[in-house]
């Protein structure tokens, strides 16, 4: 869900837009926007023109009132009459203030929303000029995500509105508002032309029959009552967000197993180059190679289809290559989510015991509600919780380890370190009701 996290002089900054490629142009673009917006219940959108492509950011009303139902949104006594994408404003601020080319921007913004009392963070991550993360997270989970991206070594510049990170530049959200432009304004999703005709015909019919009270006043009263009831019961909003999140929960375990089998069969030493480490998610793999006398052209010929990363390959003894992964996203079902307590214990402990007997280890992390959104007004019996659970072992046992894990554990990435005896760490989440 999207949320307006800050209001400054009538301008609201919204976080949590869902970004995707807009693969249509001209009049067809409006149809694509309507289709994508209707699929997730979005009310507004923003367009990000980057390189040769266009990217669509959909705004889905979250905890705060929707800008489509009122003319202004009030936060802490301030009204937002215009809504802008926090991510796009953040990019504009970096490019204009530092004269850095857009495609070279690697930056992270972590800020507490207005009135959040420090428990949540608006988190925006820009990698290579692209918006790769735009969400509202619990404070602990936001810290984990920031640490994960900074650990990749892309030299992310970190901005925060409070001194809670090392080597972070302090920034005020009000300063970002000064960089908002017309291009980043989220616009209301236009209705289909046929819908406008039907609406006009309905109004005309009301006027002809003179049933103003029955057709206008009474529906308006019922709509107000329904709106008040909907504001109190946010369960449908949560279930819609849950359904969307379950459709892309992480990396499909069979797809990851196939990927690891291909990795185990690939060369780890080639013409004077030794594979040092691999860091993969469902979309991209980042490989680090150590040079022992080989030529970089030989390495790139062998890794055809990859992208050489010069800014991370400055030394003569190392080369960093990004390879497309082509993994399949995991689709989590309600039947796969275990119940809490004894049921969860029985589902998780046996495979962990087997892994430990084989020399592997499992490490539990933070637990929180999923997907991350305000839970006030949501029925507790439908809420899903997830716990970070990473497993560590040797590469030859990777496929067996994945097969041993229960279906409510979903991996999302892994790190392989060849210099540590082919040790591999698969990161994932354990889901429970």
Helix-strand blueprint:
Layout (H helix, E strand, L loop, with lengths): L2 E6 L2 E5 L2 E4 L5 H14 L3 E7 L2 E7 L13 E3 L2 E3 L1 E4 H13 L7 E6 L8 E8 L2 E9 H12 L6 E4 L8 E2 L2 H5 L9 E2 L4 H17 L2 H21 L2 H12 L3 E2 L1 H13 L3 E2 L2 E9 L2 E8 L4 H7 L4 E2 L9 E7 L4 E2 L11 H16 L3 E10 L13 E11 L3 H7 L4 E9 L5 E10 L1
Parallel strand pairs: 2-8, 9-12, 12-13
Antiparallel strand pairs: 1-2, 3-5, 4-5, 4-14, 6-7, 9-10, 10-11, 15-21, 16-17, 17-18, 17-24, 18-20, 19-20, 22-23, 23-25, 24-25
Helix pairs in contact: 8-11
Please provide a written account of the structure.
The chain has 433 residues and is α+β, with helices and mostly antiparallel strands. It folds into 3 domains: 3-188, no CATH class; 193-232; 233-433, no CATH class. The chain has 11 helices and 25 strands. The protein has helices at 27-40, 86-98, 139-150, 173-177, 193-209, 212-232, 235-246, 253-265, 296-302, 342-357, 398-404, and strands at 3-8, 11-15, 18-21, 44-50, 53-59, 73-75, 78-80, 82-85, 106-111, 120-127, 130-138, 157-160, 169-170, 187-188, 250-251, 269-270, 273-281, 284-291, 307-308, 318-324, 329-330, 361-370, 384-394, 409-417, 423-432. The strands form 6 sheets. Strands 16, 17, 18, 19, 20, 22, 23, 24 and 25 form a 9-stranded antiparallel sheet that branches. The protein has a 5-stranded mixed sheet with strand order 11-10-9-12-13. Strand 9 and strand 10 (120-127) form a beta hairpin. Helix 8 (253-265) runs antiparallel to helix 11 (398-404). Residues 63-72 and 197-202 have low confidence and may be disordered.
